[in-house]
């Protein structure tokens, strides 16, 4: 079954659990990465579970107007925003400031960089965070992001450019050297 396309698996998933399991194994890592950057690593597993439960419930209603991955990313974003709304009105205020680079106990350089990036992403307006995350972390094309978010391609490009610029400023202010993109 691993050789089947998403379209073929979707057709089989209504009758065969194994087909749905292949879809989950194939797409869960990307959904988890998206969720980690949108709601934090601690909540990402819950979001992934919610996403695939929802996908399983609604797979029969998937019409195929868009690619499965586009639909899946929209479901994932909706689950992330739902979790953020349930947390509290200003959920992003809970994202901790990165620890000091001079912390003697400290963690690895990579972990510190990830922590700072997560913090900086959380500071972006949700439309910029969404666009940057879909492009840079999920690797989606501009047209797919436009379809997921319901805006024009030019708007997606603008949000990504503004988000990248803001990330560069936020990270630079915290001592992270950021090259131009």
Automatic annotation (TrEMBL):
<dbReference type="Pfam" id="PF04542">
    <property type="entry name" value="Sigma70_r2"/>
</dbReference>
<dbReference type="InterPro" id="IPR013249">
    <property type="entry name" value="RNA_pol_sigma70_r4_t2"/>
</dbReference>
<dbReference type="GO" id="GO:0003677">
    <property type="term" value="F:DNA binding"/>
</dbReference>
<dbReference type="InterPro" id="IPR013325">
    <property type="entry name" value="RNA_pol_sigma_r2"/>
</dbReference>
<dbReference type="InterPro" id="IPR036388">
    <property type="entry name" value="WH-like_DNA-bd_sf"/>
</dbReference>
<dbReference type="GO" id="GO:0006352">
    <property type="term" value="P:DNA-templated transcription initiation"/>
</dbReference>
<protein>
    <submittedName>
        <fullName>RNA polymerase subunit sigma-24</fullName>
    </submittedName>
</protein>
<dbReference type="GO" id="GO:0016987">
    <property type="term" value="F:sigma factor activity"/>
</dbReference>
<keyword id="KW-0731">Sigma factor</keyword>
<dbReference type="InterPro" id="IPR007627">
    <property type="entry name" value="RNA_pol_sigma70_r2"/>
</dbReference>
<keyword id="KW-0804">Transcription</keyword>
<dbReference type="InterPro" id="IPR014284">
    <property type="entry name" value="RNA_pol_sigma-70_dom"/>
</dbReference>
<dbReference type="InterPro" id="IPR013324">
    <property type="entry name" value="RNA_pol_sigma_r3/r4-like"/>
</dbReference>
<dbReference type="Pfam" id="PF08281">
    <property type="entry name" value="Sigma70_r4_2"/>
</dbReference>
<feature type="domain" description="RNA polymerase sigma factor 70 region 4 type 2">
    <location>
        <begin position="117"/>
        <end position="167"/>
    </location>
</feature>
<keyword id="KW-0238">DNA-binding</keyword>
<feature type="domain" description="RNA polymerase sigma-70 region 2">
    <location>
        <begin position="23"/>
        <end position="88"/>
    </location>
</feature>
<comment type="similarity">
    <text>Belongs to the sigma-70 factor family. ECF subfamily.</text>
</comment>
<keyword id="KW-0805">Transcription regulation</keyword>
<dbReference type="InterPro" id="IPR039425">
    <property type="entry name" value="RNA_pol_sigma-70-like"/>
</dbReference>
């Amino acid at each position: 079954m691993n050789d089947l396309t998403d379209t073929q698996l979707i057709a089989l998933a209504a009758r065969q659990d194994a087909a749905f399991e292949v879809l989950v194994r194939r797409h869960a890592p990307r959904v988890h990465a998206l969720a980690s950057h949108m709601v934090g690593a601690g909540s990402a597993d819950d979001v992934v579970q919610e996403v695939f439960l929802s996908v399983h419930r609604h797979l029969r209603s998937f019409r195929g107007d868009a690619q499965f991955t586009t639909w899946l990313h929209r479901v994932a974003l909706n689950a992330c925003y739902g979790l953020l709304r349930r947390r509290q009105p200003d959920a992003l205020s809970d994202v901790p400031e990165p620890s000091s680079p001079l912390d003697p106990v400290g963690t690895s350089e990579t972990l510190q960089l990830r922590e700072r990036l997560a913090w900086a992403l959380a500071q972006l307006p949700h439309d910029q965070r969404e666009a940057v995350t879909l492009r840079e972390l999920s690797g989606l094309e501009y047209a797919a992001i436009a379809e997921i978010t319901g805006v024009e391609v030019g708007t997606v490009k603008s949000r990504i450019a503004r988000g990248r610029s803001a990330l560069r400023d936020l990270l630079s202010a915290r001592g992270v050297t950021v090259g131009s993109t």
